[in-house]
Write the structure tokens for this entry.
Amino acid sequence: MKWKGSLCLCRKAGCLIAVLLIVSLICSGCGQGGKMQNTSTDTISYKAGKVTVLEPVFEKADVSTDLLDVDLSHSDQGYFTCLLKEEGTKVNIQITGPDDVTYKYFVETANEITAFPLTAGDGSYIIIGYENIGDDQYAALFHTVLDVELDSEFLPFLYPNQYVNFTEDSNAVALAAELSEDAGTDLDALNNIYEYVISHITYDDEKAATVETGYLPDIDDTLATGTGICFDYASLTVAMLRSLSIPSRLEIGYVNDVRHAWVDVYIESKGWVENAVQFSGEEWSLLDPTLASSGSDEDAVREYMNDSDNYTVLYVR
């Protein structure tokens, strides 16, 4: 099944609408470098050139089946993990949080930790696992309820997951460190990342027209090929921001009736910013990195993006 229309390819009034990157003013502070498994609010801060990769872990099976083990013990960090036991099998994990939105994930690789973000914040989550028994048919595998109290509301938006997949060895993480090395503030780092994305990544119209449901971005592949769709732009951007301890959300939804992905960023002095803006040091203005890299009609896109009714959020990853 293909995404309706095409993934994030939208031409309105002759202009290309694609990933929305928030380039924002965030208060900077002291940072942490290296890899971490657990964190709290005092570790969420930016420091030039320092990356902090929060690594999801699997420690014990709180739920165990013949096919799958599930570790729920790190819900305070904004995620839980699972391990698939058998190659050649497929499991569908469905998560319904306090926002009543159901998220669907698929696990197909055995003996590899898979992390699932708890993006709806504190509250009760219903988690159901289904085993693929052939074609598109699934049978119930397990059912559990998880009560979540986060150490920090930002944690689900700092860890990697299937949609924003990065490690301390990712080329994108090394690039984020390089781009922020001389960036004294979060704003400087964000602007450097934005400038890099629009200068080095071009929009792939053919991929947008043919990509199928279930596609997951590969951030290092996006860097290596220098091409991508809005999903790739957003995933790459969010991965680099998160590795710099800048909370960010990958949003998936629609621009009118066309599937689309974009980015929100947390601003310490303002909270979550959900409009596409850039702070030049003197004024705020709308931007879109795919637009900037494609040379589309900026004025037409800015007018379109000013109307928040054009955007519908379905999922936050």
Observations:
- Residues 1-33, 276-292 have pLDDT under 50 and may be disordered.
- DSSP finds seven helices and 20 strands in the chain.
- Residues 186-200 form the longest helix (15 residues).
